[in-house]
Predict the structure.
Amino acid sequence: MYDNWEELEQSIKNCTKCKLCQNRTNIVFGTGNKKATVMMIGEGPGADEDKEGIPFVGKAGQLMNKAFIGLGLKREEFYIANIVKCRPPSNRVPEQDEAQACLDYLRNQVILVKPKIIVLLGSTALKNILGKEYGITNARGTWIERKQIWYMPTWHPAALLRDENKKIEFWNDLKEVKNKINTLAEK
Ligand code: URA
């Protein structure tokens, strides 16, 4: 574990713990407010993210940004990261060994940010963070508290591009998050 951001980022830049390092253009470390109340966790970089080194800059990310704006939330207020820091080929789901190799980096980010709320964007984030027994269809939209962190699983924004009906649920889940931010701030 690293107690500073620079060393953590450098160690990921040098990382060769799994095969995803072989084809990366850039690592996608994470972005946003390093003291955020809310952390968003996605799956892994796509082509645009690999090119730019920033999470959720492609189509899915742009859709997520629109939801933030609509709800009066600011992307810069959050810390945004992924389960894996390097792009899986053809945007496939990260394999178990790849996610396992990368999870300590994410744990380190969570320890440094100290979020009160973690939004799990899609099945890969949900299963790797809370456990394989969870399924996104059932778990989404429900709060799960663990070790004083509130988790909100919701759809991955890319799922909204494939299925319009999921947009309203995603929107409602983010509204829940907004309400929780306010409730926790009042305490
Ligand atoms: N999908 C993700 O899960 N993460 C990104 O950063 C981009 C797309």
In short: Strands lie at 31-32, 38-42, 79-82, 117-121, 144-146, 149-154. The pocket of uracil is lined by residues 28, 42-46, 49, 55-56, 58, 60-61, 82, 158 (CB under 6 Å). The CA atoms of residues 104 and 114 lie 15 Å apart.
